[in-house]
Amino acid sequence: MEPNTVQIDRSGDAPVVTFADSFNTAVYMIDRHIGEGRGDRPAFVTDHETVTYAELAERVNRCGNALLDAGVRPGERMLMIVKDCPEFVYLFYGAVKAGIVPVPINTLLRAVDYQYMVEDSECAALVYSPEFEAEAALALAASSHRPACVTTTDGAGGLRERLDAASDTLAPHPSDAMADCFWLYSSGSTGRPKGTVHRQRDILVNVVLYAEPVLGITGDDLMFSAAKLFFAYGLGNAMNFPLACGACAVLSDERPTPEMTFRIIEKYRPTIYFGVPTLYAAQCRAMETEKPDLSSLRLSVSAGESLPAPIFNRWTEMVGHPPLDGIGSTEAIHIFISNRLEDAKAGTSGRVVPGYRARIVDDDGQDVTPGEVGRLWVQGKSMAAYYWHQPERTEQTMLGDDWLDTGDTYTQDEDGYYVYNGRSDDMIKVGGIWCSPIEIESRLLEHSKVLEAGVVGREDGDGLVKPEAHIILKDHGDAGDDLAAELLEHCRDGLARYKYPRWFHFVEDLPKTATGKIQRFRLRSGA
Predict the structure, then answer these.
(1) Model confidence, pTM
(2) Which of 69, 399, 405, 462 is most deeply packed, by most CB within 10 A?
(3) How far apart are CA 395 and CA 398, in angstroms?
(4) Cα 275 to Cα 91: distance, rounded to the nearest angstrom
(5) How confident is the model at residue 527 (pLDDT cuts 50, 70, 90)?
(6) Alpha carbon of 478 to those of 62, 246, 281, 453, 511: distances in Å?
(7) Which residues contact 217 (CB under 8 A, 6 or more apart)?
(8) Residues near 235 by Cβ (< 8 Å), separated by ≥ 6?
(9) Which of the residue ranges 33-37, 113-117, 431-435 would you say has the lowest mean pLDDT?
C-alpha cells in the first residue's frame, strides 16, 4: 500500500479498515480531496466565509508550518481553547500533519480548569480565541507550567498573521495507525477530566463503522452540529465526518439555543442535524408556538445523554422523523450503539453498530441475563490508547484488546435494544433494589409542566436512601406544594412504589457537562 492510504473491505457484516504501514490521518482527511477533484467544493461555511477544500489544504499546511516555526516539536501537545470556526480545523489538522498533538478543550471552562489542563498536559503551545483571553491569561499566570508558544487565533501576532508568513507546503510527519494523534479531555461527569489519548486510526475507523453505514453520509450532505467541536461528539459531527466523506459543514460560534438552531437550519438548509437531549427538549417546547421550516433535514441525531422517550416522540411528531439516539464516549471517539432511521425505538440507545461489540456484565465481569441490569463494556478499533498520567484509571477502564468499561449501566430489552439506566455511580439502591434515575426522570418528563429533571439518591431521617427529584418547570411560576403533590401522584401512577421521589425541588437549572449530561454527583453533593 502507498503511504498514508487505507483499504476498506465492505464485503462482510462490518467494514474492515487496513492502514498503510506509514499513515498520517491528515493526508486522508485533508490532502486526499485535492487529488480526488474536490478542491473547488465547499468544506465549511460560516456567516462570514466559505472555505473550499483547496483553501483548507493550503491553510492546514501553513498552520502546521507556523507551529513548527514557533518551536513546537513533533510529539508535543498543543492546547486549543478555540471556538467553532475554520481556524479550529486549521489548527487541529495542521498539528496532526506536523506530528504535533492537538488537544481541544472546553471553551466554557474557567481559569482554574485551564490551569489544571496546562499543567497536566505539559503542553508546548496554547492557542485561544480572543474571546477567551481573560481566562487563558489567568490560567497561565497561576500555572506552574508555561508553554513556549502562546498565541491567539486573531489579532497582532496571532494565527492569521503566522499563517501568512508560513510556507504553504508541508510534508506529513512520519507516523502509523497506532501512534498517538490527538487528545480529548473527558467531560467530567463523574469528577476531574482525564486526558484521553487517541491514535491515528481512531477517527477513520469510527467514520467507516458509524458515519457512513448508519448515517449514510455522502459528499452531497450539509451538516450542522449544535454540539460544539471541543468535545468528541461535536468533533465528529462538524469536522471529521464531513471531511472524511467529502461533505460540507456549517460552523457557528453562537451559543446553541432553539432560536439559533432554527435560524441556521432555515438559512443554510442542512440535511443532517446533531443535537443533545437538553436542546431537543427546548426546541420541542419552542415549536409549540413557533413553526420553523426544518424540511431540509433528512436526519436528526442525539447523543451526550440518554434521550427520554417523551422528547423522542415529540420531535418525531413535530419534525416527521425520529431523532436517532445513540451512545458514544470520549474514549470511543463517537457513537458505537445507535438507533437507525428504519429501526428506531423510543427510550433506547438502539443496537450495536456493526464492527463494535458490547457486553452487559455484573460486578465480576460475567454476562448478565437479558433484561438484567449491568455495566456496559464495548469493544472496537476506535478506542483510546490510555489516559495521560493516570495508569490506574487506564487499567480500570481500558481492559485490553480494545475493550472499554464505559461506566454506564444498561439493560437489553426483549427486542435486543440497549436501554440506558444511568452512570454506574448514579444508580440508586432503594430497599435493597437497584433503580435507575433515568426511568424516574422519564416519568417526570411525561408531565406537561416539566421541562427537565434530575434524580439522585438521598438518605432520609432513618438513614435509608430514597429518590430525590430536581425539576426545571416550563413555567417556574407553577412551583409549589400543590404541584409537588401532583407530580407525586403522577409518579405513583406509573412507577413501582419504591421508585417515586420522596422530595421535589424546583430549580432554574441543573449542573451539566458541555455534552448536556447531568452531573448527578453535584446534585448529590448540593453543589
Answers:
(1) 0.86
(2) 405
(3) 6
(4) 25
(5) low
(6) 57, 49, 19, 15, 22
(7) 211, 223, 241, 242, 245, 247, 272
(8) 104, 184, 229, 333
(9) 431-435
